[in-house]
Amino acid sequence: MTGIYVTVPVACFRKGLAREYLETEVLPPPATCYGFLLSLVGETDRRKHIGCRVTAVLLNKPPTSVVLRTVWRVKKTPLGSPGNTRPDYQQLLTDVQLLVWLDSSDELGERLEDRVRANFTQPAHRFGGLSLGESTHLVDDVSLWDRVKDRKEIPNHGRAFLTAPKGRLTLPVWVDHVGSAGTRYATGNLEDGHLSPPPSERIPIISPE
Q: What letter does residue 24 receive in the DSSP assignment?
C-alpha cells in the first residue's frame, strides 16, 4: 500500500446532488482521488486501473467559504449561448491537507501503485495542470508519504473515509460523466485515527460495476 501526501490551496469536492447551492464534501471522494492519480502518471484511459483501492484521509480542518461564481448549465446549443451560464453560490475549502492511500493488490496487469512510485524518480509524460476536484483547483504539493510523514508540520492523525455496511456517508467510486445512471458509490464513515495504513478490505474499490 502506498500513501501520497497532497496539499491543495483551494478546492471544492462538489456533492453529486448539489444544484442551486454547490456544496462540497469535506474530503475528495474515491473517484476524485483516482482521477487525480491517473493524471499524476499521465494515464488518459480511466479504465486502465480498475480494481485498485483508493481513499483519502483529511489531515486538517480546512476553512470553508462561499463565493458567487458563474457556472455552466447546458440548456441550449451552441455551448456558448447566453442561457447556458448563470450565477450560483459555491462552497470552497482552503488549505486542504490530505493523505491518499492507494492499494493495487487487486489489480490485474500493470499496477497503478508501481506507476505512482516510479513517477517520483522518473516523472511521467503528462499534460495540463495537476488538479484535485475541478480543473482550476491546482495541487500545490505531492509527495510520497514515507518521505514526509516525520515532518513537524504534518499531523499524526486524521479522518479517513472507510467503508462500512451501515455507513453515514456515501461517496462515488465511479462517475458517469454522461448521465447519472452509471455512477457507483461506496458507503462508509469518516473515522478518526492515527495515520497507519487502513485494512485493505475497508478501502473503497474503483469499479464501474
A: B
CB 13 within 8 A of CB 154: no
For 34, phi then psi, to 5°, come to -65, -45
Q: Which domains does the chain have, with CATH numbers?
A: 2-62+96-202 (3.30.70.2660)
**Which amino acid is located at 168 in the chain?**
R
Report the distance separating Cα 64 and Cα 24, nearest Å. 9
Q: For 26-77, write each residue's pLDDT tens digit.
A: 999 999 999 999 999 999 999 999 999 999 999 999 999 998 876 666 565 6
For the whole model, what pTM was predicted?
Answer: 0.88
Q: Are 70 and 86 spatial neighbours (Cβ–Cβ below 8 Å)?
A: yes
**Other C-beta atoms lying within 10 Å of the C-beta of residue 47:** 10
pLDDT (tens digit, 9 = 90+) per residue, 100-143? Answer: 999 999 888 889 999 999 999 998 888 888 999 888 899 999 99
Helix residue ranges per DSSP H, 14-103: 30-41
Residues pairing with 97 in the sheet: 7
Say which amino acid occupies 190. L
Looking at residue 65, its pLDDT comes to 93
190 strand-pairing partners: 161
> Cell 473515509 belongs to which residue?
161
